[in-house]
């Protein structure tokens, strides 16, 4: 279990914890983003200590699949991370992303500071006002709770399994969408 306290973050870095469906998708996108130092898949927002993937997928622990993004705010802002977040998933569907259904696939921003909360409220208000979707953004905005790292086989899943059918059908299109819309935010190879 990781608590994600500011003392755990390296000097000059910040953390963001986001849920937008399957954590493999978010991890694959943020791994390629300039200013992101690391991305770790895990679980947050539930009641069970040290949940397993099977327990979370059962839908009764209350956890969401999340990514913990460690980033350099001198290079990429929290708001920029959120702008990408709102492009790569559907923030208007309750407990669902495509064929992935259940509370573990909810859209959520687990904020770590009052400024992250204010920034998220600002981005959500701006996007709702722009009416980019047919319905309002229903992304949960809640304080961060203990972070539980997902099992090792979930870490860097897309990088290690790019030809797995789910990765080809679901993850790869999100990575491509990120690259198309945010070319200037890509890490240099």
Walkthrough of the structure:
There is one protein chain. By secondary structure, this protein is an alpha+beta fold. It is 33% helix and 21% strand. It contains six helices and eight strands; from the N terminus they run βαβαβαβββαββαα. It has helices at residues 23-31, 53-57, 78-88, 114-130, 157-160, 165-181, and strands at 14-20, 36-44, 64-71, 96-97, 100-101, 107-111, 140-143, 148-149. The mean pLDDT is 90.
Outline the biggest β-sheet.
6 strands, mixed
Helix content: 25-40%
Order of helices and strands: EHEHEHEEEHEEHH
Give the class from helix and strand content and strand pairing. Answer: alpha+beta
Global outline: globular
Number of H- or I-type helical stretches: 6
> How far apart, in Å, are the first and last alpha carbons?
32 Å
- Strand % is 15-25%
Strand order of the largest sheet: 7-6-1-3-2-8
Radius of gyration based on Cα positions: 15 Å
Quick one: how many beta strands?
8
Task: Supply the key terms.
6-stranded mixed beta sheet; single chain; 189 residues; 6 helices
